[in-house]
Amino acid sequence: MDLEIKNINLRNIHESDLPILCEIYGSTRTEELEKGTNWNEEQKKYFIEQQFFAQHEYYQKNYIGAKFYIIEKENVVIGRLYIDYFFEKKGIRIIDITLLPNWRQKNIGNTILTEIIKKAIIKNMAVTIHVESFNPAMNLYKRLGFRKISETNGVYHLMEWSPK
Fold first, then answer.
1. What is the 3 state secondary structure string of 19-73?
2. 6, 42, 76, 108: which is deepest, by most CB within 10 A?
3. Average pLDDT over every residue of 49-73
4. Which of 116, 149, 104 is nearest to 130 (CA)?
């Protein structure tokens, strides 16, 4: 199952993409590090790299068969989409979707998620994603019909879109 999205290219990640993938990951932690630490830039960079590589290794080992994509627009890397089209053989799991800051709020995430939902409708499958409660994208998920089905540590919401 592949996604075809007008004006967006999804390509498999490669080892050579690790630096940009780390940058994409780091863009999700910038505000937290600015407000929550007094670290210098070198300390922040080290932290981001350690966290990214730990996450990357975890995803690679625990989501066997998942697709790990770079999102491109006009041959420019704008984000990442990690997705398991047959998560636990019963649904689609969006492991991660992140756009670089300059590409947020441009309807790109909405377009990608809508295409995933269209695939789910065809396959009569649910779509799930873990979202931090304070993530601004939470509003987008709710608008698209995702609902919270569980919560971990009061922070991580498991959201589900269902065709039923």
1. HHHHHHHHHCCHHHHHHHCCCCHHHHHHHHHHHHHHHHHHHHHHCCCCEEEEEEE
2. 108
3. 96
4. 149
The arithmetic mean of pLDDT across residues 38-65, rounded, is 95
The per-residue pLDDT for 30 is 87
Name the superfamily (CATH) of residues 9-161.
Answer: Gcn5-related N-acetyltransferase (GNAT) (3.40.630.30)
E strand or H helix that includes residue 162: none
- Residues in contact with 93: Cβ distance below 8 Å, sequence separation at least 6, in sequence order: 63, 66, 83, 84, 87, 127, 128, 129
Q: Which residue has the higher pLDDT, 37 or 146?
A: 146
How many CB atoms neighbour CB 120 within 10 A? Answer: 19
In angstroms, the first-to-last Cα distance of the chain is 21
Three-class SS of residue 5? strand
- Identify residue 146 by its one-letter amino acid code: F
Q: Domain residue spans in the chain?
A: 9-161
Q: What is the pTM of this model?
A: 0.93
Contact 71, 89 (CB under 8 A): no
